[in-house]
């Protein structure tokens, strides 16, 4: 699967429709950002980002990594909005005990003193563009995973989803994490498709950007490590797949086989020499690839750590990221009771599943379920593709169920793009054009005679070739007896093969000749109506 087959390359109409959907989504998000007032989490993010760029000190809002807040602050600084020089601001930078959580009132002060419309426009603009990037990634990667039709369906579900539209422009971390997670997993997909140093470096940079958005990105990184190891067992490229299948046959080295130690010499001239003191290193190719993938993932982590340190401006404390990880939800009251479905508890393990079913449109849920059914039961989709579509959202949903507070569907936003891809696959099944069939392929009986004549049709050389049997023999059943195909099964298989009955030398013997001589049937044979219409 190193190169996409021509049948799966998107046509120009798909690209045009995708561009139109992205434009519609950006317009909706942009005009909504002009009308909506600030939500609860936006003022502290705005104040924290400005404090990072103005002072280089990371004390405000450490329970979230700095990347998205710094992006918002860059646009605010470009618009001339600065960090306030008040006593409260200086106390927050010094880390005074009384200045804890000062980023909330300071954020409100920045918005009020510089004009709410002006501040919110520039603070939200990069998040709207980031949501547009996520739309592009859904289409581009979905085109490689499931084809252009499914990718277009996924983009349609994303662009018109009320949950995404409501959160796409907010100065928060959920949509940003979804965008950088999709970017990172796409780069991992391309790396396992064709490994290389350049692609490995891009994976490391993308991982660092993802880890710089939200601490829950660690679960996406863990999913990527599993996917990289799974790619050794179920590779995408045909050459790697053939090598994986041939590995058990090469476990036992013969005298003239290459030595398992990897020296390139024959086994009888290397470790097969009698009395040789050197033990042969029986490291299989799959084990070596596993070690290579583990080393590649560690290299990604090193590059990602450098990116994270750069986002913190290379602080004196190299573990500032871990210090912020300890502060996640530390300001939330312990033992807080949530109310759900007429009951109160500290945690409801079915909350996020229920939130998804209640918040998402019914059509999206139905299409996602249809796509999941088709993906799980489909045999033509590679196993690694299924894992890329199912493992990251499953791991993320499980992590949010166990660790996240039951405070809204927004915690599931990083997993929603995969649900849109499944929905696009489900929509592709409904809109897929089914081939028209001729009289033999319909459900109405055809005048081929009795069941005996059906047996003659089942012994057609074309059908026997499909079943892997020599011509002139019937298909054996499970107990070893020769059992002819049923007439209906034979007709369906002939239609799938695109077979056209021969008028000069009909297959099946005299019975078929008598059937072809029936009134009206010979005319259909000569007109070519007994084959699927194209």
How does this structure look, described?
The longest helix is centred in the first third of the chain and has 31 residues, at 116-146. Helix 7 packs across helix 18 (416-431), helix 9 (174-193) packs parallel to helix 11 (217-233) and helix 11 runs antiparallel to helix 17. The chain is globular. Helices cover 59% and strands 1% of the residues. It has helices at residues 12-35, 42-55, 67-78, 87-94, 103-114, 116-146, 148-159, 162-167, 174-193, 197-211, 217-233, 238-246, 285-311, 320-326, 351-359, 362-377, 383-403, 416-431, 451-458, 461-466, 487-496, 510-516, 521-527; strands spanning 338-340, 343-345. The model is unreliable at 1-8, 274-282, 435-467, 469-482 and 499-534 (pLDDT under 50). Strands 1-2 form a two-stranded antiparallel sheet. Among the domains are: 332-433, no CATH class; 444-527, no CATH class. The protein has 534 residues and is mainly alpha-helical.
């Amino acid at each position: 699967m190193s190169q996409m087959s021509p049948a799966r390359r998107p046509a120009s109409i798909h690209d045009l429709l995708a561009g139109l959907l992205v434009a519609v989504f950006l317009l909706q998000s942009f005009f909504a950002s002009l009308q909506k007032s600030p939500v609860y989490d936006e003022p502290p993010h705005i104040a924290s980002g400005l404090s990072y760029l103005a002072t280089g000190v990371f004390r405000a809002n450490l329970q979230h990594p700095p990347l998205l807040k710094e992006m918002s602050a860059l646009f605010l600084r470009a618009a001339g909005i600065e960090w306030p020089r008040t006593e409260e601001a200086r106390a927050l930078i010094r880390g005074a005990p009384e200045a804890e959580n000062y980023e909330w009132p300071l954020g409100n002060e920045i918005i009020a003193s510089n004009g709410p419309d002006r501040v919110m426009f520039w603070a939200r603009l990069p998040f709207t563009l980031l949501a547009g990037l996520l739309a592009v990634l859904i289409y581009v990667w979905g085109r490689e995973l499931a084809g252009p039709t499914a990718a277009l369906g996924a983009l349609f579900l994303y662009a018109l989803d009320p949950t995404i539209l409501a959160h796409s422009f907010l100065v928060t971390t959920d949509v940003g994490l979804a965008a950088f997670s999709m970017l990172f997993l796409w780069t991992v997909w391309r790396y396992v498709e064709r490994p290389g140093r350049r692609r490995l470096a891009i994976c490391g940079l993308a991982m660092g950007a993802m880890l710089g958005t939200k601490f829950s990105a660690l679960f996406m990184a863990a999913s990527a490590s599993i996917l990289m190891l799974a790619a050794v067992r179920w590779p995408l490229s045909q050459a790697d797949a053939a090598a994986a299948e041939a590995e058990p046959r090469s476990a036992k080295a013969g005298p003239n086989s290459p030595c398992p130690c990897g020296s390139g010499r024959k086994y009888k001239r290397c470790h097969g020499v009698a009395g040789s003191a050197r033990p042969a290193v029986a490291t299989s190719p799959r084990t070596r690839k596993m070690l290579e993938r583990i080393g590649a993932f560690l290299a990604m982590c090193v590059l990602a750590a450098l990116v994270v340190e750069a986002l913190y401006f290379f602080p004196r404390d190299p573990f500032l990221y871990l210090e912020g990880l300890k502060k996640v939800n530390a300001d939330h009251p312990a033992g807080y009771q949530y109310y759900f479905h007429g009951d109160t508890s500290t945690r409801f393990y079915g909350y996020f599943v229920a939130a998804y079913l209640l918040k998402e449109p019914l059509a999206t849920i139905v299409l996602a379920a249809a796509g999941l059914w088709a993906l799980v039961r489909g045999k033509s989709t590679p196993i690694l593709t299924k894992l890329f579509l199912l493992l990251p959202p499953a791991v993320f949903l499980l992590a949010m169920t166990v660790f996240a507070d039951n405070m809204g569907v927004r915690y599931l936003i990083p997993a929603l793009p995969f649900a849109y891809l499944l929905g696009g696959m489900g929509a592709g099944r409904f809109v897929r054009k089914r081939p028209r069939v001729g009289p033999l392929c319909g459900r109405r009986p055809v005048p081929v005679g009795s069941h005996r004549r059906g047996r003659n049709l089942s012994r057609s050389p074309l059908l026997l070739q499909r079943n892997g049997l020599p011509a002139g023999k019937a298909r054996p059943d499970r107990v070893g007896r020769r059992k002819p195909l049923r007439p209906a099964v034979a007709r369906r298989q002939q239609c799938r093969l695109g077979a056209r009955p021969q008028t000069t030398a009909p297959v099946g013997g005299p019975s078929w000749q008598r059937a072809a001589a029936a009134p009206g049937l010979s005319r259909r044979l000569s007109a070519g109506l007994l084959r699927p219409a194209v």
